[in-house]
Amino acid sequence: ILIVEFLVGWTRIEDPIRDSCEVFYTNIYVQIFNTIFAYALPMFLNMLMIYASLRHIHLTSVLQRTQHCVSAREKYHRSLIIQFICFYFIWGVLWSPFVIVSQMSLHQQNVMNIVTILSFVEVACDPIIVAALDVRFWDQWRKFGVHVKNTIFVDRRNRRRIHPTTVNPN
């Protein structure tokens, strides 16, 4: 989509000092379109997914509202929804300012630096957040780390097999 905007002439690239470039939009409609396409649509789809998950849990619930016991499956589904909401809340808070501000042609470097740092923090924290929300991810990361450590640091010379050699008496 962004390539089409360059080809049509809705955006232009300027090269300021220090080998970085800035994208400037020709009108506000392009900025609104980019904000909708890059921010509002993914957020709406995430909210729709959360709603569909909650509705699925509610429809598949076999217990009446007055009963106090909850099945293990329902507890698991509810915990997944809570994890999903926590992850996307943190993701939205740290990622939203960067997407919104990057669509505006701002000349204030301090604002851009702050939202860029927030975006980097979000990218760096994603694996930690996912691992904290679900133990299975943490276990897989731990197994992967052990595998990498064993692959890199284990002495391979001791693992070689000695094959008998046959000598031809002729």
From TrEMBL:
Sequence intervals crossing the membrane: 28-51, 80-100, 112-133
Source domain of life: Eukaryota
Record has Transmembrane helix as a keyword: yes
UniProtKB keywords: Membrane, Transmembrane, Transmembrane helix
Name assigned to this protein: G-protein coupled receptors family 1 profile domain-containing protein
